[in-house]
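Appendix C: a fully annotated inverse folding record. The material below is reproduced so that readers can follow the format used throughout the book. The structure is listed first as tokens, followed by the designed sequence.
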């Protein structure tokens, strides 16, 4: 990986000692991808929240975590879900709870 100095770097934040600045071309592409992914993730979160009645104004937190990376108080539900839905992800969390989504089966559920 090539170390490249870039402009517009926020120097007020302490960077990890092993941080590498992207080239201008890579940084531009990553910014575009980030914008696109963030928008799509927010849309997925809104759809899931709406279907599970988790909607609350301005309190929807889009997320994308595989089921095996989450820990909930009700571990039995998580273990059962992992056995059934290996590709499920937590897609949204609100003060009313979290919602998971399984793309292969086209289903969402409170998790």
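Designed amino acids, in order:
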């Amino acid at each position: 990986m090539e170390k490249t100095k870039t402009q517009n770097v926020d120097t007020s934040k302490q960077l990890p000692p092993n941080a590498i600045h992207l080239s201008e071309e890579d940084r531009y592409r990553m910014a575009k991808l980030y914008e696109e992914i963030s928008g799509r993730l927010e849309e997925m979160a809104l759809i899931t929240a709406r279907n599970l009645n988790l909607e609350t104004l301005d309190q929807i937190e889009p997320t994308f975590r595989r089921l095996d990376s989450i820990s909930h108080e009700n571990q039995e539900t998580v273990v059962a879900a992992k056995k059934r839905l290996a590709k499920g992800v937590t897609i949204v969390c609100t003060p009313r709870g979290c919602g998971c989504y399984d793309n292969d089966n086209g289903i969402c559920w409170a998790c």
